[in-house]
Amino acid sequence: MWNRRKNLLLSSLSLLRHISSSPHLPRLHPLKPSHLLCPSNSFLPPIDSQLRNNLLDLPRCGFPRNLSSSNSCSSCWNCGAVGPTSGAFLACGSCGAVQPVDASVDYFQIFGMKKMYEIEEGDLEGIYKDWQKKLHPDLVHSKSEKEKGFAAEQSARVIDAYRTLKNPLSRALYLLKLEQIHVDEEKTVSDPDLLMEMLEMREAVEEAKDTQSLKEIQSKVKKKLDSWSNSFKEAFNKQDFDSAVNCTQRMKYYERALEEITKKL
Amino acid sequence: MLRLALKRSLRLGPAVSHTPSAAMVVSRGYHERVVDHYNNPRNVGSFDKEDPNVGTGLVGAPACGDVMKLQIKVDEDSGKIVDACFKTFGCGSAIASSSVATEWVKGKQMEEVLTIKNTEIAKHLSLPPVKLHCSMLAEDAIKAAVKDYELKKAKAAPEQE
User: Taking Cα atoms as reference points, which of A98, A20, A99 lies closest to residue A55?
Assistant: First the structure.
């Protein structure tokens, strides 16, 4: 603990010397470690979050660093230790106390992943289980009511995050939501080609007589889903949100068909 | 066979519920009229799309992946809808809405059916707010079917226009 603080002090002091030579900032005095740990306590000049991230390079609980700069400095309600400057602060690294839900932390941050469509789906489960080992309500049955409440909410949020990110369509829709793209769910679609294709597909599923033909249809639909999933990725990366939304609509239809097939199988 | 198909597409089996969501839905309760339309389907089927007296309305709700096809058979002399049928892939509310729509358009004039509002369908079936869009889909399907018929008529006899 003290070694960490010492290293922190040394690296930050050298950086502060750099800052203090800048004409825009007031001259600084040598700081005590406790002040450094809570930069919101006024001794540090206002610095932008990028610089703060460099300044306070606190070790995190082994989760990968992500690119977001929200969550600038939360501290644990239980022991006062400062949370990570980037990445989700769901449980305290020092005392293990579960923290209250911070709705500004998005699902990608919870999983320490970049906010984009292509993610390592295989990694999701491991990270999910790691979080649940810290957050699950069963682990806090002897703690305070307050912490039990936090655990229930955080755990539920992590489950939501896991489910949303795991399924490509829900991940796509979540990404659109984060970009503030609102899809009018009530709007009826009347593109005849699209609807005809879907109608015929669903009819084929219903009329399929055996497992073999169902599996054939299933693999065809999966291929289409994958191809539209790629189209979404391209459209989204190009910020062509209209096409992206169109892709998600098609993906929804294919997913419905797959659900029906699974039920029949 | 069609009943089985309907059951499957409805995801609601009174005797057998395959998924937890179906069981939850039953306990929350579809209105008895919705269940009635599901158990006693009226007007399920297809007309020949190429028939000049048939108008086909094909609509979809992308949010839930529903597809609804509503067809009308029109008597060209009187402009009255003499028959209607539907085929819907979606939830119980969507199926019931389209079923009700086919019942209501039969025997009416085309201009008249254009005044059928989704709110009337929703009220008739006591649809919860979350299912209101299903009735909207049915209203859109009626309008699409009428539009299709009129387009066909216009194409078939342009000199008379």
Answer: A20
> Could you give the CA distance from residue A95 to residue B71 in angstroms, rounded to a whole number?
67
Mutate to test the interface with B, among A169, A170, A188 (most CBs of B within 10 A): A188
Instruction: Kindly state whether A204 is in contact with chain B, defined as any CB-CB distance less than 8 angstroms.
Output: no
Tokens of B74: 């029109």
> What pLDDT, on a 0 to 100 scale, did the predictor assign at position A5?
59
Strand order in the sheet with B54-61: B54-61, B66-75, B80-89
User: Rounded to an integer, what distance in angstroms lies between the CA atom of residue B138 and that of residue B43?
Assistant: 14
Task: Return contacts of B108-117, CB within 8 angstroms, 24+ apart.
Answer: B108/B80, B108/B81, B109/B78, B109/B79, B109/B80, B109/B81, B110/B72, B110/B74, B110/B79, B110/B80, B110/B81, B110/B146, B110/B149, B110/B150, B111/B79, B113/B72, B113/B81, B113/B142, B113/B146, B114/B142, B114/B143, B114/B146, B116/B142
Residue of A81 and A50 predicted with greater confidence: A81
Chain B residues in contact with A207 (beta carbon < 8 A): 5
| B59 to A253: CB separation less than 8 angstroms, yes or no | no
Across the interface, which of A202, A252, A260 has its CB nearest the CB of B62? Answer: A252
Chain B partners of A249 at a C-beta cutoff of 8 Å? 62
Selection from A222, A114, A106, A221 nearest residue A164 by Cα: A106
A147 CB within 8 Å of a chain B CB: no
Whether residue A189 lies within 8 A of chain B, CB to CB, comes out as yes
Structure tokens that stand for B138 in this block: 């049915």
Residue in chain A lying closest to B69 (CA):
A199
Tokens 């922190």 found at: A8
Beta strands in B1-102 (DSSP E): 54-61, 66-75, 80-89
How far does B106 lie from chain A, in Å, by closest CA?
A: 23
Average pLDDT of span A25-29: 44
* pTM over cut 0.90: no
Q: Do A204 and A254 form a contact (C-beta atoms < 8 A)? A: no
What is the pLDDT averaged over residues A213-229?
92
